Structures are given as structure tokens and as C-alpha cells.
Amino acid sequence: MKNLKFALLLIIVLVNTSVFAQNKQHQFDREKYESAKVAFITNRLDLKPEQAEKFWPIFNKFNDERESLMKEMSTINKASEGEVSESKAKELINKRFGIQKSMLDLEVKFTEDITKVINPSQALKLGGASRDFARQIYRMNQRGGPRGNN
């Protein structure tokens, strides 16, 4: 088991290195990013192969739906810039609450679905693992790559 975790960690490091070593011109390789994310989360949650097979389609669908809602929220935020009439402001506030409710409903449904595949402890760790991965990517970008090169 330790060798498997070490191998997964090594894969994560190698993928991250190749993803960001080539990123000097601020190019983004979505496929390598997604591969690194899968390896990171799979390792962090200690997913068994049979769990991972069922987990990733549910997780990816959730992420796609969440991303769509976030785009809607971004549109509302842009519409609220500058001068807005009182009636338009009320409309935008109501739309924002609607999207937030949809996001909460999506999160509840996702948690119900995912806990049929992974245990509640793994489900609880998922949010932290996703944030940790995002932080790691952000830090690597801030440093100019995995070795701090600019």
C-alpha cells in the first residue's frame, strides 16, 4: 500500500512538473491538468479502483453543472457593475439567490449520490482535497513552475 501511495504521489509530481514546466508561455494543457487532478484526488481519498470507476463520472458531472452555475453567477456579477436601477438590482439579487439555491441543491444531490460510491469520511475529505489541489496549482503558477523558475 505504501508503494502504491508513493507511486501515485510520484505520478502527481511528474505530471505537475511536465504540466507547468511547459507553461512558461502561460499555455494551459487541460488534459495534463485533469490527469494531475485525478491522481491527486484519487490518492488523497485513497480510492479503490472499483470506487474510482464509479466516482469519477459522478464527480465530473457535478463539476460541469457547478461550473455552469458559476458562469451564470459571473454573468450576474458583471451585470451588477456600474449604475443599476433599483428594479434591476432587485432582479439581480433574486437571480443570485436562485443560483445559490441551485448550487446548494446540486451539492446536496452530489453528496447523496457520491456517498453511494464512497464512504462519508471520503466524501468529507473530498472538498479539502479539491481545495488543496487548487492551492497547489496556484502556488506553482505564482512561483513560475514547480522549481520557482520565472
Can you characterise this structure?
This protein starts with a helix and ends in a 7-residue tail after the last helix. The chain has 2 domains: 1-47 and 121-150; 60-117. The longest helix has 31 residues, at 49-79. It contains 5 helices and no strands. Mean pLDDT is 83; it is low at 6-10. Helix 1 (2-21) packs antiparallel against helix 2, helix 2 (30-45) packs across helix 5 (120-143) and helix 3 (49-79) runs antiparallel to helix 4 (86-114). The chain has helices at residues 2-21, 30-45, 49-79, 86-114, 120-143. It is globular. The chain is mainly α and 150 residues long.
Pick out the low-confidence regions.
Answer: 6-10
Largest sheet: none
Beta percentage is: under 5%
* Relative helix content: over 70%
Order of helices and strands: HHHHH
The chain-level mean pLDDT equals 83
What's the gyration radius in Å?
19 Å
Keywords:
LTXXQ; globular; signal; 150 residues; 80% helix; Spy/CpxP family protein refolding chaperone
Give a quick rundown of the structure.
InterPro entries: LTXXQ. Keywords: Signal. The chain is mainly alpha-helical and about 150 residues long.
How are the elements arranged and paired?
Blueprint: H1 2-21, H2 30-45, H3 49-79, H4 86-114, H5 120-143
